[in-house]
Design brief:
alpha/beta; single chain; globular
Length: about 200
């Protein structure tokens, strides 16, 4: 079954022609980017957003991945969006709306036709308010459109020799903070430092 979905993914990526890949460095976006690079080569660019609530280790791993495959990569530094400073319950929706608006602006300015992301079929079963924002902004999700699940993506990544195939999922630092709590950068720094110690 993954093979059929894999072929469908290829045809979607061919049809899109030129696009920005929203690249977090996680398994899904890494697999999507690698496949897009094989299919489209010069018509794509990976863009990673750096904000105070994205762990620095994720940015480093995203850079390492793109460099290892010779993929064009841009990092966009974006300040903390005012809409989520109080960590509201609709934080994920507001965050996605703000960050993907920046990606769309980048795509337009650099003449890319689409912005795509690594949402997969399993994400439709979870509480994912951010998906509503993606839909409103017209972001394409080729893995979801091809029907690929997380297991499919890990299986295909492993068979294609991608070293990230078994990388554990990571969430943004805001998920460690209770809703309706004002977020301060020192707080995020402490959380990140503690988690880095656990990883080590």
């Amino acid at each position: 079954m993954p093979d059929t979905k894999s072929l469908k993914l290829n045809s979607i990526l061919k049809e899109l022609k030129s696009f920005v890949v929203a690249f977090s460095g996680g398994v899904d976006s890494s697999f999507l980017l690698h496949r897009a690079h094989i299919i489209r080569k010069s018509g794509i660019i990976a863009v990673t957003i750096r904000t105070p609530y994205i762990p620095a280790i994720e940015i480093d791993q995203a850079i390492e991945f793109t460099e290892s495959f010779g993929i064009r990569h841009k990092i966009l530094d974006i300040p903390f969006p005012d809409t989520i400073i109080a960590n509201p319950i609709d934080r994920c929706y507001l965050c996605k709306k703000a960050l993907f608006a920046e990606l769309l602006a980048f795509a337009k300015e650099n003449r890319f036709k689409f912005v795509i992301d690594g949402t997969n079929n399993d994400d439709t079963n979870d509480f994912r308010p951010g998906m509503k924002a993606l839909k409103e902004l017209g972001i394409r999700s080729p893995l979801l459109e091809a029907g690929l699940t997380k297991n499919d993506i890990r299986e295909l990544s492993k068979s294609e020799g991608l070293y990230i195939w078994d990388k554990p999922a990571m969430a943004c630092l805001l998920t460690r903070i209770p809703y309706d709590t004002e977020v301060k950068e020192e707080m995020l720094g402490m959380i990140e430092q503690a988690e880095n110690m656990l990883f080590e």
